[in-house]
Every structure is written in structure tokens, then in C-alpha cells.
Design goal:
379 residues; alpha/beta; TIM Barrel; 2 domains; 5-stranded parallel β-sheet; two-stranded antiparallel sheet; 16 helices; 9 strands; 11% strand; binds zinc ion
């Protein structure tokens, strides 16, 4: 079957289910064990941003039909054993960009909806640029029309003449940077700056700016809470244990000391399945955090309080409603037993595991997993 027609059929099914009370309520009932935790990043008119209009529309839908729980309340109820989450959701936003204060916060405040902002504390303190913004700044401001970045014996060709070309360049370099350690990443960023003949300002420019501590204080008065999201936003699975422990503990200490409305829930930077591991979950649990959240919305069989799944809301209203009513969760839950069965079959056929993929999520596996653009957007 053609890919386009499969997408069309899926969309028709979603529209049908969402259209009638009885089918929509049935979907919610089937997915009642799941409370969607929505995960936003940036707000504005760019290709990777949610516009003010779309966000307002989504909040109106939520306000009309859902009970929005503060994250800390959701964690408490989950610990106490609540299992029916029909018509509930949680709103979270990552990183701590200023556009949250400028665009999202007024919309949330107007509707009196709670949300949690996960803050990268080095960014809040104006000590660092977020590393993917350095790439964006470099490819956006260079006067060159093309360039070749050499890294590790490979070459990335950058077409800088069109927005699409610059976006593809950003994708390629950001994707590479999520697969290497911090010192190698810094080398790549320095080399990119040299290659493009651009110097990066000391402090992020307006487009890449963080909220201020004063803005956090103001928002805390209006149902916005704040959780740690590391100090420097490295991919933790690319760090040595001492480093990732420091990133978790220091961001907790910095934020809890500075932000009224602090919640003791950690958000894994990047947060795909390859970006954190069981050791980090155990460390966060033993450190006494309430919970931790990931940035993917699948593999619910392995979900715990210290790797709660989050869904990235689509700009498309049908897909947004589908996720909100538990459709995406249900699709994953139904496909997971099938995947487990296939893995079991593979291990039965390859008992020594020579050709079977590892199931323990080790670093070696992660090194070989090529990550695409979709991963690089979940930062
Ligand atoms: Zn992030």
C-alpha cells in the first residue's frame, strides 16, 4: 500500500474516533491508565516552534475537556496508586527559553492552567549557550553560501543559500553532536565557527535568550513550577558517571536555591531512550527526587516513576487530540507485546546474541544507533 494512502486511512480513523462522544470516550477508557504529559520546547513562528495561536487553541481544547494536573500533584497521585487518568493531562516545557515567558506563560495565566518549566541552569545563569543554538546561530549568520565541515574523517557539506539548506545543515551537525561526547562536541562547534568565519557572542542573543530569575519569580505566583534539566544540557549517556551525576545534582541545587515553585522532578536532557539509562534512574531515585521525565512517548512496558514518558504535541489538531485522548499510548501499548515477541524469537534463533540486537540499552548499542532529525528536535 502507498505510504500516502496509509497515512490518509490512519487520519480518517482518528477523525472518526474523535468525532463522536461514544467512540472518543471509549478510546479514553481503553487508555485510562495513561495520563498524557505534554512536552513543549519553543514558541514562536519558526519551523521548530509552536505559534501563539496554535498554543492558545490547544490550551482552549484542554481547558474545555481536561483536568490539568500540576506535575507534582500527578507524581503524588501516581505514587499513591491512582490508575484511572481519564480526562487528565500535565503540561511541561523544556529548557527555559525566554519565549516561554513571552508567549506561553500569558496564555497559561489567562486560562489559569498550571505548567512545569524544566530549566537548564547554566543557561538561566547566562553562563552558556545551548549547544544546538550555537549551530543555528552559525549557519544563520555566516556570509558564506556553502561550506564543508570536516569531522572525524567525514565531511558534512553545508548549503547555506536557502532556509531549507541551512535547516538541513543544522540537522546534520546537531544529529552528529547528539552521538559524541562533550569535548568532541565542543571541538565540532569550534571547527564549525572557524569554517563559517563567525564568532559567537559571549551571551546568547535575543532569539536564543533564557528567562531571567526575576521572570521565574513572577511566574511562580501564577501556577508555573520549575524542575531541573541539567546545568549544560549534555546528552547524559555520552558523559562519564561523575559528570552526569554532577549535572543532575548541581542543577537541582542551583534551581532549588533560586526558584520559588521548585519541583523535585528531573528532566533528562534530550531524553530519548538512548540518552539516559538505568544507572541514572537509580541515582535519581536514591537521591530522593520525586520523579524524572523522559522525552519520548513509547516503550510503556518499561515506564517507571523515574523515566515517565512525555508526548510532543503536534501542531495538527487531529493528531493533538489523538495524543491527548490516549490514542498514541494505545497504539504503542498494542505494538509493544508484538515487539517483545519478535525480540524473543530473534534471541531463540540467535542464542549467542551475535546478531541479535542487545536489549540492555548499553552504550555500545547507542553508539551504533544513527539518530535522525526527529531525535535532534527533542532537546
Ligand atoms: Zn532540553
Amino acid at each position: 500500500m502507498e505510504w500516502g494512502s496509509r497515512v490518509g486511512i490512519k487520519r480518517t480513523i482518528k477523525q472518526f474516533v474523535l468525532r463522536f462522544d461514544i467512540t472518543r470516550d471509549s478510546l479514553s477508557w481503553l487508555a485510562r491508565r495513561h495520563c498524557p504529559i505534554l512536552m513543549y520546547h519553543r514558541f514562536g513562528e519558526g519551523s521548530r516552534e509552536i505559534s501563539a495561536q496554535t498554543f492558545a487553541c490547544q490550551l482552549d481544547v484542554i481547558k474545555h475537556s481536561f483536568n490539568v494536573l500540576p506535575l507534582v500533584e500527578f507524581c503524588r497521585q501516581r505514587r499513591e496508586g491512582r490508575t484511572d487518568w481519564r480526562k487528565c493531562c500535565v503540561i511541561t516545557v523544556d529548557d527555559g527559553y525566554r519565549d516561554f515567558y513571552q508567549i506561553a506563560y500569558p496564555a497559561l495565566r489567562e486560562r489559569r492552567l498550571p505548567a512545569t518549566l524544566f530549566v537548564t541552569t547554566g543557561f538561566l545563569n547566562r553562563e552558556i549557550w545551548l549547544w544546538w543554538d550555537v549551530i543555528d546561530y552559525l549557519v544563520s549568520t555566516t556570509a558564506l553560501s556553502s561550506a564543508t565541515l570536516e569531522c572525524g574523517g567525514k565531511e558534512i557539506h553545508l548549503d547555506l543559500t536557502t532556509p531549507q539548506g541551512r535547516k538541513s545543515g543544522w540537522d546534520a551537525v546537531a544529529s552528529l553532536c547528539t552521538r559524541i561526547n562533550n569535548s568532541d562536541k565542543q571541538l565540532i562547534l569550534n571547527r564549525l565557527a572557524e569554517t563559517l568565519h563567525v564568532s559567537v557572542p559571549q551571551v546568547p542573543t535575543e532569539r536564543y535568550a533564557s528567562c531571567s530569575v526575576e521572570e521565574l519569580k513572577e511566574m511562580a505566583e501564577h501556577e508555573i513550577s520549575f524542575g531541573p534539566h541539567s546545568v549544560n544540557h549534555p546528552v547524559l549517556s555520552r558523559c562519564e558517571p561523575d559528570e552526569w551525576k554532577r549535572e543532575i545534582s548541581d542543577s537541582r541545587r542551583h534551581l532549588s536555591a533560586r526558584a520559588k515553585g521548585y519541583v523535585d522532578v528531573f528532566a533528562y536532557p534530550s531524553g530519548t531512550k538512548e540518552d539516559y539509562n538505568k544507572g541514572m534512574e537509580a541515582f535519581i531515585e536514591s537521591a530522593g527526587f520525586d520523579a524524572a521525565v523522559a522525552a519520548h512517548c513509547d516503550d510503556f512496558l518499561n515506564e517507571s516513576q523515574f523515566c515517565l514518558r512525555r508526548c510532543s504535541p503536534s501542531r495538527d489538531l487531529v493528531d493533538f487530540l489523538w495524543t491527548l485522548n490516549g490514542g498514541e499510548y494505545l497504539r504503542c501499548r498494542l505494538s509493544e507485546p508484538l515487539k517483545v515477541m519478535m525480540r524473543g524469537l530473534k534471541h531463540a534463533l540467535f542464542p549467542r546474541g551475535k546478531h541479535a540486537p542487545s536489549m540492555n540499552g548499553s552504550g555500545e548499542d547507542r553508539k551504533t544507533n544513527a539518530k535522525g532529525f526527529k531525535d535532534a528536535t527533542l532537546l
